[in-house]
Amino acid sequence: MSDLSLTEAPPETAGPQASGLRHGRVGMGLGLGLATAYLSLLVLIPLGAVVWRARSDGWGEFWEDVTNRESWAALKLTLVAGLLVAVINVVMGTLIAWVLVRDKFFGKRLVDAVIDLPFALPTIVAGLVLLALYGPESPIGIDLAYKQSGVLVALLFVTLPFVVRTVQPVLEELDQEMEQAAASLGASNFTIFRRIILPNLYPAIAAGAALSFARAISEFGSTVLISGNLPFKTEVAAVSIYGQIQSDNTNAAAAVSTVLLVVALVVLALIDLLQRWAVRRG
Amino acid sequence: MARWTLRLVALAYLALLLVIPLGIIVNRTFENGAGAVWDSLNEPLARHAFQVTLQVALWAVLLNTIFGVGAALLIVRYDFPGKRIFNALIDLPLAVSPVVVGLALILVYGRLTPVGSWFGDQGIDIIFALPGMVMATAFVSLPLMVREVVPVLEEIGVEQEQAAWTLGASGWQTFRRITFPSIRWAVAYGLVLTLARSLGEFGAVAVVSGRIVGKTQTITLYVQQHFENFDKTGAYAASFALAAIAVVVLLIMNLLRPKEDR
Question: Which chain B residues are Cβ-neighbours of A31 within 8 angstroms?
Fold first, then answer.
């Protein structure tokens, strides 16, 4: 997504851009109050309630809710699938970004536009679409429905744009003179890629991978239809939480939710650190 | 040689993951002709589901546009204690699973909670009703507008606004005549993103809506129900409509992008 400005320098002004600071005090106070109230009522208090509910019967109970066989299996599948998705996206996303920036072929603009489709397509539609090629009626005979590999394909679909869209702008900005210098000194294409290009891409690739992972572990809609939601087999954490809510097992749902929240927060913090690091490296 | 291989691998990956599955769905949707698709989209329940989705999405877009532009102005133009935390918290919804969003809202606004029962006494249901669905949708799409407007505000700087101030313009005048015209494309872009995300929301709404057919069923819930009940025609038709909206969204985004780079 474009909000990762890895290529841009931080704004010149260190502090806020004080346009009407003296005049706007009251307006600012009111605005800040309203914005904070909105954020609190909608996001912070409800999320706090989840964590509160998770530990309401003590940490022992919390631990049991998280490590009971079904929740644990779901969490394990979710985290492993999330890691796999991140790794595959690092390879394929970088490769696609490379082709989009450095290659020239007919229809490239169309391919470039198509990359964003998974962001625009509702997740339930994504699941339904994938079942067309990888379901029981698959024209090529590959049936991944109700299998873990089906879950993986669904997650790859919804996370496709992340690495592509973080790496692409960095590649575009990259100065090719260094590569030409390396080539004139006899470096092979692979050496140039490994020694010159790749080091410049690391922050972008890592940020894209982290975003893919965060999205993958929280994904629900796209996995619903293709996974069949079989406990111990294809049930991901979000689906497991949904089941617990439906069967009024709110404490267990809150416990698994809390684990997901903590993991996602750690990933967000990592992305933030990465961005700072990238900005410092210039 | 290497160039060809890379191109082939990239295109094959995209074809297998994206293009071919989409093509098959379009093909299957129109198996019985466009008339059948139109008929299933006109089923009363489908129409109702579209209406509910639209209603929820428009409310969410309205709320997040006001919040998003306001929050972006606060972040870029003002200094206040806790600004870094405020800024970081806005991104939080991106990392929360939609199902957790639903659970979180139920825990605070559900019928059995103090807040929920107070509203219930006033005759207002939040959970299993429209207000809860709007909240869930606004939650998941909250960061989109802010993140589009902030970089543009940073880039345009403050000279013009300061000039307006010194010439005696009020805060509102400055915003309307100076600030807004320069961020309008970013706002338009954020609006399209928020709308697309809202129309397609599934998990959070699945939890808080109670999925009452003909009442709180949105179009994405309709797709799931009809797919699982073997009404593939209905599911495909509604999915096709949603996919068509997604494609239009992409087109609009591509049209808006270059304008920003001027």
Answer: 70, 73-74
Is the pLDDT at A20 greater than 50, yes or no? no
A103 part of contact set with chain B, CB < 8 Å = yes
Which residue of A30, A41, A42 is the best one to mutate when testing the B interface, meaning the one whose CB has the most B CBs within 10 A?
Answer: A42
pLDDT tens digits, one per residue of A245-256 = 999 999 999 999
Q: State the CB neighbour count (10 A cutoff) for residue A220.
A: 26
What's the structural domain count of chain A? 2
Cβ-Cβ contacts under 8 Å for A144 (sequence gap 6 or more): A134, A135, A150, A153, A226
| Interface check B31 vs A, CB under 8 A | no
In a domain, B176, yes or no: yes
The pTM of the full predicted model, rounded to 2 decimals, is 0.90
pLDDT digits (tens, 9 = 90+) for A257-275: 999 999 988 987 888 887 7
Task: Quickly list DSSP for B59-123.
Answer: HHHHHHHHHHHHHHHHHHH---TTHHHHHHHHTGGGGS-HHHHHHHHHHHHSTTSHHHHHHHHTT
Q: What is the CATH number of the domain that holds A196?
A: 1.10.3720.10
Torsion of CA B250, B74, A36, A46, to 10 degrees: 30
Query: Is residue A218 within 8 angstroms of chain B, CB to CB?
Result: yes
Asked whether residue A215 is domain-assigned, the answer is yes
Residue of B79, B174, B206 lying closest to A15 (CB–CB):
B79
Chain A residues closer than 8 Å to B86 by CB:
35-36, 39
Are A125 and A37 members of one domain? Answer: no
Report the C-alpha gap between A14 and B144 in whole angstroms.
25
Contact B104 A160 (CB under 8 A): no
Could you tell me if B148 lies within 8 Å of chain A, comparing CB atoms? yes
Query: What band does B86 get if pLDDT is binned at 50, 70 and 90?
Result: very high
Is residue A147, in this structure, part of any structural domain at all?
yes
Instruction: Please judge whether B79 and A16 are an interchain contact, meaning their C-beta atoms are less than 8 angstroms apart.
Output: yes
Share of residues in chain A with pLDDT > 90 (%): 63
A17 inside domain = no
Residue of A nearest to B243 (CA): A121
Please check the confidence at residue A17 and state whether its pLDDT lies above 70: no
**Residue of B144, B29, B193 whose CA lies nearest to A116:** B193
Residue B15 lies in a domain: no
Q: Are residues A201 and A150 in the same domain?
A: yes
Are A89 and A200 found together in one domain?
yes
**What is the extent of the structural domain holding A49?**
22-54
* Number of domains, chain B: 1
